[in-house]
Specification:
Number of helices: 10
Order of helices and strands: EHEEEHEHEHEHEHEHEEEHEHEHEE
Helix content: 25-40%
Strand content: 15-25%
Structural class: alpha/beta
Radius of gyration: 20 Å
Distance between the termini: 21 Å
Largest sheet: 7 strands, parallel
Number of strands: 16
Shape: elongated
Length: 303
């Protein structure tokens, strides 16, 4: 059973004392859009004052770690680049250091924004697609012939990496599908179906890879955002912490809370300021993903 902590000063103190590390989702937990939730800054300062390590773990692939630091700064949240761990960075690390590709097929075709490109650049991974204006147009009848024949395909592409793309179009999907048909690895920064912004929900990165999954007969991409344990392993490898002394804080049951549970963390904390808006979402005997504790908003941890 999940413990309700809002207003419970003793319960909050006991809960916080269990952990040395707090992993925070950002969108829907710290802020929504450009609105930082009341008490967020003070809560993070309180945790730091108690010697807790803070890591910002985000599935938002549109921003690089440096971009996220700028956003945190703009929100009045002190942070270093090293405290940020994003899905784009996780994917770039996997491609450059783990994935075995033929020497002639090291290029990545990107469905996504500049955050992905920046992290690929940080690992010296060649890439095409993404924000290249050449792909931001309507498909032309001659494109069908040139793509089908392979005339306009880059033979060095060995990976299709799908993230949130604000400029997705038929042409990009056609190229991505063509590369996958020719054997490119299918990867995704994350598969969140929705994202919270402006106190509402919008299509997430999962909506970008969904058409390709359908085209590929149900083949799903390897994903690197929460709840993928490839991401947890990478975070643990970088920050070197005891999982039993770590807590995942998030607003989504299917990504954040599942991420912490499947990762064997000591606890999970759900806030109701994002995708999950009621404790009824995890109540019931048939519910598999139940947070250790929950609060209405992160600022409630101040007691």
């Amino acid at each position: 059973m999940s413990k309700y902590l809002t207003g419970d000063k003793d319960g909050i103190a006991e809960f916080i004392s269990r952990f040395d590390v707090f992993l925070f989702d950002c969108d829907g937990v710290l802020w929504s859009g450009d609105h930082v939730f009341e008490g967020t800054v003070e809560t993070l300062e309180m945790l730091r004052s108690k010697g807790k390590q803070i890591v910002f773990v985000t599935n938002n692939s549109t921003k690089s770690r440096a971009d996220y630091k700028k956003k945190l700064d703009s929100m009045g949240i002190p942070a270093s680049v090293d405290e940020v761990f994003g899905s784009s960075y996780s994917a770039a690390i996997y491609i450059s250091r783990i994935l075995s590709l033929p020497p002639s097929q090291k290029t990545v075709f990107v469905l996504g924004e500049s955050g992905i490109e920046t992290e690929l650049d940080s690992e010296s991974i060649p890439h095409i697609g993404g924000t290249d204006p050449a792909y931001n147009r309507l498909i032309d009848p001659k494109d069908y012939t040139s793509i089908a024949s392979g005339e306009t395909l880059d033979p060095s592409v060995g990976v299709v990496l799908a993230g949130l793309d604000f400029h997705l179009n038929y042409l990009k999907l056609a190229y991505a599908f063509a590369y996958l048909q020719r054997g490119a690895k299918f990867l995704a920064t994350n598969t969140d179906t929705t994202l919270p912004s402006a106190r509402s929900l919008f299509p997430g990165a999962g909506a970008i890879s969904a058409p390709l999954i359908a085209m590929m007969g149900g083949e799903r991409p390897m994903a690197f955002g929460k709840p993928s344990q490839a991401m947890m392993d990478a975070i643990e490898g970088k920050f070197r912490f005891d999982r039993k002394k770590a807590c995942m804080v998030g607003d989504r049951l299917d990504t954040d809370i599942r991420f912490g549970i499947e990762g064997g963390l000591g606890g999970t904390l759900c806030v109701l300021t994002g995708v999950t808006i009621s404790e009824k979402d995890w109540e019931g005997e048939d519910k598999e993903v139940v947070p250790t504790a929950w609060v209405k908003r992160l600022g409630d941890l101040r007691g």
